[in-house]
Amino acid sequence: MILIAGLGNPAQKYADTRHNVGFMLIDEILKTGGFSELGSSKFQGELFKKGSLLLLKPQTFMNLSGNSVKAVNDFYKPERIIIVHDDIDLDLGAVKFKKGGSSGGHNGIKSIDALIGADYERVRIGVGKKQQDQDAANFVLGNFSESEREKLGEILPYVARAVKELICSDIEQVAQKFTIKKARV
What we know:
Layout: E1 2-6, H1 21-30, E2 36-38, E3 45-50, E4 53-58, H2 65-76, E5 80-87, E6 95-99, H3 107-116, E7 121-126, H4 136-140, H5 146-168, H6 171-178
Parallel strand pairs: 1-4, 1-5, 5-7
Antiparallel strand pairs: 2-3, 3-4, 6-7
Helix pairs in contact: 1-5, 2-3, 5-6
Organism: Campylobacter gracilis RM3268
Site (Stabilizes the basic form of H active site to accept a proton): 86
Subcellular location: Cytoplasm
């Protein structure tokens, strides 16, 4: 079994924010169809299943994402965990893949690391870099502009294809094939 958790914040007011790009990717994957929603409050998230694939959208708010990931991990004991999250150190549209490593200051990743360790795969989606004097929390909780949403509409299907390949492959191969270091203009 493989668990893919897309990080974000519940509530409609956060739906179009940079911090919710993980939720957006899960929604993109769900468009392929065939997933059943597994209703259980013990997972503290929206959980979907198709064959041996689990998709999770934690409903704990970003800073407590680890609670939901741990609950699903403890119950299903997946062989692999893939976390999809926003990265403000990457240009909008950049995509990187890694296993383990530091949280880079991302509170959702810190929460997961604290509860299950850092031995999981990560898909980092660039949401743009904040201005030097800009508060990071305000930046990630800010909405995408119209032009940014258009670019996101192009990158999310691309990342969904990468994740689909990641399910059947290893992260090094997927990283070589799908990494986008700089945003394409």
